[in-house]
Amino acid sequence: MTDKYTALVSRGWGRDVAKRLGLPQPVELRRYSSGDPLLPGPALLIGSGPSAGMLEAALSSWGVEVRREGAPNVAAPRAADDGARSPKIGAIVLVLDGIERPEDLSAPLLAAGHALRSLAPSGRVITLSRRASTQDEPALGAARQGVEGALRSLARELRAGATGNGILLAEDVRADAPSVLGSLRFLLSGRSAFVDGQFLTVGTSAGELPADPERPLDGKVAVVTGAARNIGAAIAKTLARDGAKVVAVDVPAAGESLVQVANEVHGTALQLDITRPDAGEQILQHSLSRHGRLDIVVHNAGITRDKLLANMDAAKWDSVIEVNIAAQLRINDSLLASEGFGDGAHIVSVSSTSGIAGNRGQTNYAASKAGVIGMVRSTAARLAARGGTANAVAPGFIETEMTARIPFAMREVARRLNSLQQGGRPQDVAEAIAFLASDGAAGISGNVLRVCGQNWMGQ
Ligand code: NAD
After folding, report:
1. Is the pLDDT of residue 272 over 70?
2. One fold for both 31-202 and 221-451?
3. For ligand 1, is residue 257 a contact (CB within 6 Å)?
4. Which of 365, 425, 432, 454 is flagged as catalytic?
5. C-alpha to C-alpha distance for 93 and 112, rounded to whole angstroms
6. Where are the beta strands (DSSP E) in 300-439?
7. CA distance 262 to 204
8. What are the tens digits of pLDDT across the range 123-150?
9. Best CA proximity match to 353, nearest among 398, 324, 394, 309
């Protein structure tokens, strides 16, 4: 499950040889570790106005040194001008919520471009802008949508583990709303290592930032399905690290490893096939009786039964739909109908880039994973009245036993087909889920966050 190539070309002679031969040059990504500084260098804040002031105040309060490129028509100094002496920039933050016409993009984007050569390895470029809407004047809509095109292209130009992502604000959401600052912190940190070319949409000002940013889930009870191994086990460990009490769910056949995971995270194990008609009641009952509450549900359990559609049989098709989406729908229905599923609950479902872009041999799987996206959008609307959220993460190529089974040549190509030129780790998916499960993301609902290193498939 390890990517030996990335380890080889990350340093020393391996790096030189790869460079000379023009081979892909993935680097070890900056990943979150407790106590690390938020960024590997100061932040360059491009833009002016109240939102820029709000972000500057937040960054400073997080211990980040902020350099301002205040006036939007003043370009940042070229990296070549100040030479190698100036320290590398940890992040470039572009405040674009005031733009009105496509022409307004020129000065801030060019200023960012001039600063790109000074960006540190695993640095960040982050845009803050307003979500385009059909109500916008056409020029305004063009400017706002333009940000998305520019950011996604810029992200593809970054090197050395740097990523580019954006935060989209609904019309009445201020730049200092909890979920805007929560998103900013997540995207700057090593928690978002494999999130690239993505946008988080903040729809409301709900939520609050955690008192302790290292334990954003303190006091919460979380259920994780498919927790016995790989991505599910990483989710259980990450939610527990962030302060949650975890109920680890998996099929009885995986009982031994399930208990190991549950013990490791000081949580409890629930042996349960999620396709059972009473799975929702069992989950709720276990959580309430053992831990007194239920705040977070992570639908991670999933299976593949790949075949070209021409060779697909009903058993393969139906089992994938049943585990990956029908069971989740039933569990959500029963939780939402109960009193015990608290107000302000967070549901996070694991989708897949196959559900967005499609994948040969995976019509059943893609139908189920696209179904997950449809489900979280509708569920988000239902949970809104109770202050809850429903979101999905869509992993791309993640280094697990599932992807280790792909034949070598195909696997080697698949893991390089993204801007970071490597596969992600289960931990990367878990970090995105932990963020979306936190109250610092309570203003984000109905989103699909890809954790795919900006895979070439789909958006
Ligand atoms: P995995 O097969 O290693 O683990 C899945 C877990 O779900 C297993 O422990 C399994 O026992 C459990 N499970 C399956 N059916 C169940 C049922 N009916 N009831 C309870 N538990 C059940 O898979 P993984 O690679 O860790 O993937 C986890 C999730 O991420 C899945 O939903 C998968 O589709 C998705 N995903 C994975 C990748 C990847 O690259 N590995 C990419 C995109 C999406």
Report:
1. yes
2. yes
3. no
4. 365
5. 8
6. 346-350, 389-395
7. 35
8. 999 999 999 999 999 999 999 999 999 9
9. 394
Strands 89-95 and 119-130, sheet pairing: parallel
Q: What is the pLDDT of residues 39-76, one digit of tens each?
A: 999 999 999 999 999 999 999 999 999 999 854 444 44
> What's residue 2's pLDDT?
65
User: How many Å lie between the centroid of ligand 1 and the Cα of residue 225?
Assistant: 9
Counting residues of the chain whose pLDDT is more than 70, the rounded percentage is 93
Among residues 189, 224, 179, 100, the alpha carbon closest in space to that of 389 is found at: 179
* Distance of CA 265 from the midpoint of ligand 1 (Å): 19
Amino acid residing at 288: L
Task: Decide whether any atom of ligand 1 lies within 6 Å of the 166 Cβ.
Answer: no
Residue 41, ligand 1, Cβ within 6 A: no
CB-CB contact of 401 with 419 (8 Å):
no
Q: Of 420, 375, 444, nearest to 9 (Cα)?
A: 420
Q: Name the CATH superfamily for 221-451.
A: NAD(P)-binding Rossmann-like Domain (3.40.50.720)
Distance CA 216, CA 449 (A): 19
Say yes or no to pLDDT of 193 above 60: yes
Residue 443 Cβ inside 6 Å of ligand 1? The answer reads: no
pTM score, whole prediction: 0.94
CATH 3.40.640.10 fits 31-202, yes or no: no
DSSP 3-state assignment of 384?
helix
Q: Show me where the domains of the chain are located.
A: 31-202, 221-451
Cα 104 to averaged position of ligand 1 atoms, centre (Å): 45
> Binning pLDDT at 50, 70 and 90, where does residue 21 land?
low
Q: What is the pLDDT of residue 459?
A: 60
CA distance 107 to 113: 10
- Residue 418, classed as helix, strand or coil, is strand
- 32 is an active site residue: no
